[in-house]
Design goal:
8-stranded mixed beta barrel; 6-stranded mixed sheet; 26 helices; Sensor-like_sf; TIM Barrel; Diguanylate cyclase/phosphodiesterase with extracellular sensor; Alpha-Beta Plaits; about 775 residues; Beta-Lactamase; alpha/beta; 3 domains
């Protein structure tokens, strides 16, 4: 991100966050106000509807009173009464029509004392009116102040009835008028409330004969019927109050409606004003916050620029704004101190990363960079180049005997001698690590490099003198040349080390790299990578080399050996993979494989009942495995094989690597019933004290002594002494490497117990061992 982008991002975030918070607060306030206005409006409308309902019922009562008064005047009229007494039907009908018309009654009827209809003045369709009169009259009889609604032809009519006395009741006068539009209009004019009469006939059909509503809400009302509290129309929300009217011939409800928007309208202007104030406030707040953020971001820009300079490794530019006394100034001063400290640390890190602290020479990384730079496309020259790698001999012995401080002084002295021998400015002497050094010789071919190596070797002939200690120096040196030996820097360095280690093994002085030096190593490494695959895919084979008893002892014996049947390489000799398996720790898996294969073979029907004992070799890593006993016992239990059927062979060197742990493990193995044998006896450095304490049953004389018995008297003497020593300790003796019958006879004369070697039999596949044994019998 650029400075400008970072600055604007910070300002935008500060202003944006502040505006967002303010907008949230304003929006919440606006919503609360709006909700409060709506709630108060609805509450106000509910109270108004209460009044409207009372007024509506009062209007109906006033109309009923007017009818009662007209009915009472008609009943008290002398002429009407005379006509009633004379039973003049035409006069009665005429009086009913005239009087009803004067007071606005649509229906006028005369009933006898038994509420039977004597005369009726009604609009067309008198049948419906006769039926309605017959329904209403019984309900109004005896209720002088009551009125009743009847649905006639889908229109509600309000009826009242008064008695006609002379002085006793001689009949009843019933009058009714339609509850029609004028009454609803009157309510609208009085209280600005909309009225709608909903009539549901006996057939269930709904009609709205009277309404002050606009066409759209009226159509909605006719379609959906009585609303539940409110009616949502395109013109707004109408709160509704339904008032049920007692009626016959159908149901009649008076629906009173008031608009919420009309009540809220006066407050809308206040809301608009509030919105304008909010927008103006947001603009002013944004401007103020922007100015404040700009003031904060300006000094931060210099800090951001400083961090970018630090990322580029520029530590010499001081920061600005350090003269301020506020928090920004404190931050700038702290950051500047950090800049100074980081600069000092980076200088020290670079020095430690590329230079050896002890000798002051370039280290491995710096040396590699120099080689890479010398071989870079832009820096390559016609002149050749050579790398010489040097490793001091017996340096570990110096550290162990004289101590590490003395070893450090020795390394410093070696560095000084190398500087004396490599004097050209373009060449470089480096310490790669430990007691390993390297020399880069630019413009030197193989002959020149060998000359420098001999000169260095000659300089080491003079011993180093430290106080009262004289130290003789020698070193193995390897040389690799460009372009003949390698094409890149890493390969050149690697092949120089390969030549150096080969020279250390051969004790041949300075040695130049040859491809033959590492071809075997590469092949061995390839085999190691395939070894695990070999175990998993059953490429290993069990071989047995027979042992014979030299003095007719009962029982049969053999040593278990492993062979690798590689699918491409054929039969791989054990010496090509066993030593490296021991170095990597994979020998534990090989030991378990060997032990399991032996147990599986011993459990076969052909071998189960033979008095056979098979020897299996254990390595140093096996002895240091605390779970070895449990693993071997589990395999014995799985195949049903007795521990006495196996002999575990351990070399002297394996025991002496960690005598105490080895002794503890051997005791545990002996307790499990295994027979124990010390292999390659005579080649290690074990003491008789340890030999006496170990729970071993057998000594196995190393083949180097056995094979030399015919030509070297010392070897024969060693074999004799070993046999006598073992017998005196109560141990049996096995001689390996028996190559001739003469050696076999000599061993028999020395009272050796068992022998194995090519004079007896070479190692055989496990399946062929029993065949060989049968032939011997």
């Amino acid at each position: 991100m650029t400075l400008r982008g970072a600055r604007h991002s910070l300002i935008v975030r500060l202003v944006g966050l502040s505006l967002l918070l303010l907008l949230i607060v304003q929006a919440a306030g606006f919503a609360v106000v709006r909700a409060s206005i709506d709630r108060n409006a609805r509450s106000q409308i509910a109270r108004a509807l209460d009044i409207d309902e009372n007024v509506w019922h009062r209007l109906l009562e006033q109309n009923a009173d007017r009818l009662r008064q007209g009915s009472a005047l008609l009943a008290a009229d002398y002429g009407f009464r005379s006509a009633v007494n004379s039973d003049d039907e035409e006069t009665i009908q005429s009086v009913l029509e005239n009087h009803g018309g004067r007071i606005g009654a649509s229906v006028t009827a005369l009933l006898d004392t038994g509420l039977g209809l004597r005369a009726l003045s009604a609009p067309e369709g008198g049948g419906d009116f006769r039926r309605a009169v017959g329904q209403v009259a019984p309900l109004l009889a005896g209720q002088a102040q009551a009125s009743r609604i009847a649905v006639i032809g889908g229109l509600p009519y309000q009826f009242v009835m008064v008695p006609m006395r002379a002085p006793v009741v001689m009949g009843w006068v019933l009058m009714g008028f339609p509850v029609s539009q004028p009454l609803a209009d009157e309510m609208r004019q009085l209280l600005a409330v909309d009225v709608a009469l909903l009539v549901r006939g006996m057939d269930g059909a709904l009609s709205v004969p009277v309404s002050t509503l606009a066409p759209e809400p009226l159509a909605l009302l006719r379609r959906e019927g009585v609303p539940t509290g409110e009616l949502d129309t395109a013109q707004g929300v109408l709160l509704a109050r339904a008032s049920q009217l007692e009626s016959v011939g159908g149901e009649v409800q008076a629906l009173l409606l008031r608009s919420v928007d009309e009540v809220v309208a006066p407050y809308r202007q206040l809301q608009v004003l509030l919105a304008v104030i909010t927008v103006v406030g947001l603009l002013l707040f944004a401007v103020g916050n922007g100015l404040m953020a700009q003031r904060v971001a300006t000094p931060l820009r210099s800090l951001l620029a400083a961090t970018q300079r630090l990322s580029r490794g520029e530590y010499d530019v001081p920061l600005a704004h350090m003269d301020r006394t506020d928090e920004i100034g404190n931050l700038a001063r702290s950051f500047d101190r950090m800049r100074i400290d980081i600069g000092a640390q980076q200088s020290e890190i670079r020095r430690l990363a590329y230079w050896d602290r002890l000798t002051g020479l370039p280290n491995r990384e710096r040396f590699r960079e120099a080689v890479v730079a010398a071989l870079a496309p832009g820096a390559q020259r016609v002149r050749p180049m050579a790398v010489l790698t040097l490793d001091l001999d017996r340096f570990k012995h110096v550290n162990d005997v004289l101590g590490y401080p003395f070893g450090d002084r020795l390394l410093q002295a070696v560095a000084g001698r190398l500087r004396e021998q490599v004097v050209r400015p373009e060449d470089m002497v480096a310490r790669l690590g430990g007691n390993e050094f390297a020399v880069l010789l630019q413009g030197a071919d193989a002959a020149a490099a060998l000359e420098v190596a001999r000169r260095i070797n000659h300089s080491f002939e003079d011993p180093l003198v430290f106080e009262d200690q004289n130290v003789d120096l020698s070193a193995a040196m390897g040389i690799a040349c460009w372009p003949g030996d390698a094409e890149d820097a890493d390969t050149l360095l690697s092949r120089s080390e390969i030549a150096m280690y080969a020279g250390k093994r051969q004790l041949s002085g300075p040695l130049r790299y040859d491809p033959a030096l590492d071809s075997a190593s590469a092949q061995t490494l390839s085999l190691l990578t395939e070894l695990r695959h070999a175990v998993e895919h059953h490429e290993l084979r069990l071989y047995l080399q027979p042992k014979i008893a030299l003095h007719g002892q009962p029982g049969l014996a053999a040593e278990a050996l492993v062979r690798w049947q590689h699918p491409q390489r054929g039969l791989v000799p054990p010496m090509e993979f066993i030593p490296f398996a021991e170095q990597t720790g994979f020998v534990r898996q090989l030991t378990l494989w060997m032990f399991e294969e032996v147990c599986r073979w011993l459990a076969t029907p052909a071998a189960r009942h033979l008095p056979l004992r098979v020897s299996v070799n254990l390595s140093t890593r096996d002895l240091l495995d605390p779970e070895l006993c449990h693993r071997l016992a589990a395999l014995l239990a799985r195949y049903g094989v007795a521990a006495s059927a196996l002999c575990l062979e351990i070399t002297e060197s394996a025991i002496m690597d960690d005598p105490q742990r080895a002794e503890a493990m051997l005791n545990r193995l002996s307790e499990h019933g295994f027979k124990l044998s010390i292999d390659d006896f005579g080649t290690g450095y074990s003491s008789l004290a340890y030999l006496k304490r170990l729970p071993v049953d057998e000594l196995k004389i190393d083949k180097s002594f056995v094979m030399g018995m015919e030509s070297a008297g010392d070897d024969a003497l060693i074999v004799r002494s070993t046999i006598d020593l073992a017998h005196n300790l109560g141990l049996t003796v096995v001689a390996e490497g028996v190559e001739t019958q003469a050696i076999l006879g000599h061993l028999r004369s020395l009272s050796c117990d068992e022998a194995q070697g090519y004079a007896i039999s070479k190692p055989l596949p496990a399946a062929d061992y029993l065949v060989w044994q049968t032939r011997q019998g």
